[in-house]
What we know:
By secondary structure, this protein is α+β, with helices and mostly antiparallel strands. It has 2 helices and 7 strands. The longest helix is centred in the middle third of the chain and has 15 residues, at 84-98. Residues 17, 19, 51, 72-75, 80-86, 108, 112-115, 117-118, 121 line the site of coenzyme A.
Amino acid sequence: MTIVGVTDDHPRPESPSIWGDWGDMDPAAKDIGLERWIIEVTDGGQTDVVGDLSAHAVWYGPTTTSRAINIGISLVEEFRGRRIGGIAQRLLAELLHDRGIVRVEASTDVDNLAEQRALERAGFLYEGTLKLAQGRRDGLHDLQVWAHVRVPQE
Ligand SMILES: CC(C)(COP(=O)(O)OP(=O)(O)OC[C@H]1O[C@@H](n2cnc3c(N)ncnc32)[C@H](O)[C@@H]1OP(=O)(O)O)[C@@H](O)C(=O)NCCC(=O)NCCS
């Protein structure tokens, strides 16, 4: 499996799910500086785009060391349930750590058990729950926050 960086205008693989059923989107949310990757799996000489990943900065203070990165993932439906999600998120966390990012975060709905298992398998640790943090078409939802941390070497 490989993850390949793509530009913002690269077409997204079709991967709808109840967790991404947003309803009306806020135009201001386009300005968060999203970075994107597609996930490719090669099997028997055939390469499939099986999903995509995204990442954006979250600042906890005005210093470089206060910059965490929050990642997201969505797999094409036929490729879900094959343990791809954990591997892809681990690959992205390691790529971001190699760039000097200490704290890689992922947030997911408290009811999204598949993503929680995938994050656990990717080496993320559950840190807590954000009340009513995400609004989707059907209303407000609590989100779990998970983190993958690489302690900086002296
Ligand atoms: C969430 C997602 C990335 C997980 O990746 P994946 O490769 O499908 O994950 P896995 O194959 O490792 O499966 C995860 C685990 O969840 C389990 N699982 C799947 N659906 C489940 C459900 N509805 N309830 C409970 N467990 C579920 C699987 O059985 C597996 O459990 P196991 O590790 O004990 O075998 C992928 O399913 C996906 O893209 N889903 C839709 C979009 C999404 O939810 N994105 C994340 C939004 S924050």
